[in-house]
Amino acid sequence: MNAPVTEKPKPDDALLGRSLEQLTEWVRSQGQPPYRGKQLHQWLYQKGARSLSDITVFPKQWRSEVETVKVGRSRVHHRSIAPDQTRKYLLRLEDDALVETVGIPTEKRLTVCVSSQVGCPMNCDFCATGKGGFLRNLKAWEIVDQVLTVQEDFQRRVSNVVFMGMGEPLLNLDEVVASVRTLNEDVGIAQRSLVISTVGIPHRIRQLAEHNLQVTFAVSLHAPEQKLRAQLIPGAKHYPLEKLLSDCRKYVNMTGRRVTFEYILLAGVNDSPKQAIALAKLIQGMQSHVNLIPYNPISEADYQRPKTHDIQQFKHALEQYKIAVSVRYSRGLETDAACGQLRINQSVIISPSPVLS
Ligand code: SAH
Q1: Does the pTM exceed 0.70?
Q2: Which residue in 100, 142, 175, 262 is the catalytic one?
Q3: The domain containing residue 335 runs over which residues?
């Protein structure tokens, strides 16, 4: 009997990220019965198969024929665990690019903070990721892989995913949307438990709205006026604040979902009660929520985290204008795993330890 010819996958073609239908189509193209598609789907998304040779329900002969087919799993190059149990992973991708992902456990939730790009081109002055430059966009399966990696390491189901790791998700919109679909339909995470966070890219907020996802949409605002915002986020220079906010209003109208505004608090820069009032006036009347993020220190920048009193005063000023507001203290600070602290750490690249597979 002739063995079926093994389809050679293209270099950018992984099995991870494909739907049940697409996987079924693939097994058929390999001369296998369609029910193997369901098995493959289960082993990829529920059992964490890293190679087709792991899939013991497949016939031995076929397994050895397809063991080099690309599944799309990375290797954990380094892992660090903070005292609060937040775990940061440095993942090595197939082209040896390194990307960070963070697992944040609480009693009820396991949240993964995923990266959407290797590095970031936005160059925010307070963020470590941008300081390291930009390498490339991630593929959808490289985003899904991050979630599966954290799920396996914690031996617990991931409940929430936030696109707040390295990168600007709206600069990689197609792959991010594809990963949202896979996380939802194949991994089984509710769309409402996903957050896409962006500094805002012209035209892309509308494009995201057109996908009609149920995800939470977050915009990193950080300043109540354009001049200061452009200083803090050089990548936002050509996207006037008024235009960004009018796009956010349209997003709310199109999707019926509120926008979360993230606002990093930098002592003496953007944290005065006057600036809080200016912020309140900007977003008043819009279905929204403000998330205040006290600055997490990075070595490349000179900013300070405001005193607790000033943070509370800023929050109070917003509340006076009936703005819904919460303060988000980042987890994982001790291992540089908190918001804005993700970077490709050179010392880790030179001496990896411990290496997990
Ligand atoms: N590019 C996207 C997602 C990545 S950053 C975005 O900017 O929204 C996720 C959040 O962490 C953003 O709100 C970002 O501004 C914030 N952040 C970046 N650096 C930080 C730091 N040093 N301290 C606290 N928050 C930071």
Answers
A1: yes
A2: 100
A3: 75-350
